[in-house]
Amino acid sequence: MNDxxxxxxxxxxxxxxxxxxxxxxxxxxxxxIVGAGGLGCPAALYxxxxxxxxxxxxxxxxxxxxxxxxxxxxxxxxxxxxKAVSLRDSIHAINxxxxxxxxxxxxxxxxxxxxxxxxxxxxxxxxxxxxRHAVNRACVEQRKPLVSGAxxxxxxxxxxxxxxxxxxxxxxxxxxxxxxxxxxxSEAGVLAPLVGVVGSMQAVxxxxxxxxxxxxxxxRLSLYDALSGEWRTMRVPRDPAxxxxxxxx
Length: 249
Prior knowledge:
Helices cover 38% and strands 18% of the residues. The protein has a single domain (23-235), classed as Rossmann fold. The protein has helices spanning 3-8, 10-13, 19-28, 40-50, 83-94, 109-117, 129-142, 171-174, 185-188, 192-211, and strands spanning 30-34, 54-58, 99-103, 121-124, 146-152, 155-161, 220-225, 230-235. It is globular. The protein is built from ten helices and eight strands. By secondary structure, the protein is an alpha/beta fold.
């Protein structure tokens, strides 16, 4: 770490739970962020500012005027530009030393598995069940921790799954693929700062995983009601009969 790094990350280094060693672990870490929208923007901006060494951002969509109410990684002059590219540029405006790979695609099949195999942790910032389940299956297969977030209307949720831990559930344990998908924010709306709350919490959990500080919220589902200002947390057990993580390896 050079002198500029020591200054840039000094408020992390002052934390005994992180210190120089934790910051160096963060700098050596890598993450895949699936989705550069409402959740992916705050998560990526904070992880970039915090000094995560390598980030891979995947999104096939382009910035639209309706995104700008909540997707804070994009500017008005980015309308029409791929979201992953726009978010990379915003990260570099804050911290030019971060290495950001851009995948202008919806990751599927072997491409998804390969991308997950090449990082230390995965953030699911997508907005549909099909992607969430595909990401979960690949994370279980590759034994990579998954930080999952969702937000709709005034309600947000956060969960961490880590198949390296024997008792950890996976996303399928919590939301089996038989569960029908509800409305998306394009249909039901979403409170702008809510995605910032959830995406920032995803960044918090990811920093803990990479820096090796504290304990990630594995096996817990946190629910946030922005209208009442209340958080509720419940335990999520691993399902021994889960079709994804419950099968013998």
